[in-house]
Amino acid sequence: MADLKRSPLDAAHRSLGAKIVPFGGWDMPLAYPAGTLAEHRACREGAVAFDVSHLGTVRVEGAEAFGALQRAFTNDLQKIGPGRTQYTHLLEPGDGSVLDDIIVWWVNDERFDVMPNASNTARVLEALGVGRDVTGERAVIAVQGPAARERLEAVSSAAAAVKRRDVATVEWNGAELTVAGTGYTGEDGVELAVPADVALDLWSALVAAGIEPAGLGARDTLRLEAGLPLHGHELGPGITPLQAGLGWVVSWSKGEFRGREALAEEKSAGLRRVLRGLTVEGRQPPREGYDVVMEDRTVGRVTSGNFSPVLGRGIALALVEPAVAVGDAVQIDVRGRRVDAAVVALPFIPKKGI
Amino acid sequence: MSNVPSDLRYTADHEWARLEDGKIRMGITDYAQDALGDVVFVQLPEPGTRIELGGTFSEVESTKSVSDIYAPVTGTIVGVNTELADSPQRLNEDPYGVGWICVIEPADGDAYDTLLDAEAYSKLISD
Q1: A138-163 pLDDT, tens per residue?
Q2: Domain ranges (residues) in chain B
Q3: pLDDT category of residue A2 using cuts at 50, 70 and 90
Q4: At which residues is N6-lipoyllysine found (chain B) (predicted)?
């Protein structure tokens, strides 16, 4: 594990006493001494800051940028414009499965910042054929929670004013921040890309403003409650956007894009599995890989599961046969024991943002 | 630094044991709870269950993983901390106190003495 990358905020995490774990090729904080459950609640009730510097940034500039992204990704960039962000997918041409799920920050007329998952940056760059990897030049901090904007106001009122799904550049202490009204918790908030050399100063200012540090453990339980997919679990090899219930990410009206043909074939043939939410009776967390059983027959498999701090019970996302519908009673095979579960509508908790 | 009380005995699997009137009360160590992170579920054993030294008979689940609990001695479960069903966080808050898991009637009265002492366990977790 010698070549794990370190975030520009690494020193801050270590001095805060964070548990550091390898994630997507990076050394990242799993939890701070408060612990995952406390960090989760802080995000649902107050405001937290996540270091998400492990997300990639591929910068695409110039006249070819729009066309290259429009041909590569599933969503239609004509639905947005400069100063807006868009969630989109990059597909495998062969089978239409999701090579990566991405947020595009259309920063201005000249510049797109494409934000892939940590370990997919090189593949996204290769698929685009344009752009450069600027991941190492910046840190990214996600500030999330119902009090996120109010507390961020004390650090940068311009950053706090960036609206949901907008993106803007903001000056802070002489440095240029790129701020997007995006996140991955189901709460309101923004994500701030900050030059690496001022990242520690910004992080300290955010923490001083009462925004509590939260690690990847809480990020995962938060996104799960919000019903948001994680690449490598609900998306990835063999899993298409349609199976994951993300048909809205695919624009059939925009013309050609990578993987369109394979996806159109799946659409006309019918889906062989779909993503559903499950809640179990009791606190036991279902885990990835557990079988979902209905009337003594295996009908699918858990892709992510954990304990929901808000609901006080185990929850899971699972890929199941399309006949398994919301309201059905199923069981989850927990290491040989059958646990009762219900198929429920997603998200698990009321939606406040995406 | 993890807390390793000097009056308890330990296993290499990070359980602690305390001798009480010939019976053994047990739980997981401070080191174990810290490594697990926030505990959200404990699969409690049934009273009366026979357990074998080194066999698994309970599970502790945190937000990040599942961990088996191993029998520190051969014997029979005679007491279970049912409070853990609704308050599993007690394993984090007070692993040697209200976070105890169960009480075992050992088959062999000398089994307790074969467990690691605090010094040996401290050395194990510092290596």
Answers
A1: 999 999 999 999 999 999 999 999 99
A2: 9-119
A3: low
A4: 64
Residue A287: list chain B partners with CB under 8 A: 66
Is residue A315 within 8 A of residue A225, CB to CB? The reply is: yes
Token pair 């807390």 is at which residue? B3
What does CATH list as the number for A5-52+135-225? 3.30.1360.120
Q: What angle do CA A218, A180, A21 make, to 5 degrees?
A: 30
- Match 């967390």 to its residue by tokens: A285
ipTM: 0.90
For A143, the 3-state DSSP assignment is strand
Both tokens of A128, joined, read: 């685009």
pLDDT tops 80 at residue B1: no
Rounded distance between C-alpha atoms, residue A133 and residue A125, angstroms: 7
For the entire predicted model, the pTM comes to 0.95
> In chain A, what are the domain boundaries?
5-52+135-225, 58-133, 272-354
For residue A280, CA distances in Å to A30, A164, A269, B65, B112 come to 25, 33, 32, 17, 39
A interface test, pick of B30, B31, B38 with most A CB neighbours within 10 Å = B38
The verdict on whether omega for the bond into residue A347 sits within 30 degrees of 0, i.e. cis, is: yes
Whether domain A272-354 has CATH 2.40.30.110: the reply is yes
Asked whether A199 and A138 are in contact (CB, 8 A), the reply is yes
**Domain A58-133, CATH:** 3.30.70.1400
**Can you read off the two tokens belonging to residue B87?**
């308050």
On chain B, the residues whose CB falls within 8 A of the CB of A37 are: 38, 40, 63, 89
Whole-angstrom Cα distance, residue A8 to residue A53? 8
What are the structure tokens assigned to B90, written together? 């007690």
Identity of the residue in B38, B43, B66 whose CB atom sits nearest the CB atom of A36: B38
Helix boundaries (H) for chain B: 30-36, 90-93, 118-126
Strands A5-6 and A26-31: parallel
Contact across the interface for B43 and A307, Cβ inside 8 Å: no
Pick B9-119's CATH classification: 2.40.50.100, 2.40.10.340, 1.20.1250.20, 2.40.160.40.
2.40.50.100
Q: Nearest-CA neighbor of A140 among A196, A86, A88?
A: A196
For the segment A39-66, the average pLDDT, to the nearest whole number, is 97
Query: Six-digit token pair at A216?
Result: 């990847």
Nearest CA-CA partner of A293 in A249, A254, A328, A243 = A328
Say if the Cβ atoms of A284 and B61 lie within 8 Å.
yes
Q: How far A308 CA lies from chain B's nearest CA (Å)? A: 9
The strand ranges marked E within chain B are 9-10, 15-20, 23-28, 39-43, 50-51, 56-62, 66-70, 75-80, 102-106
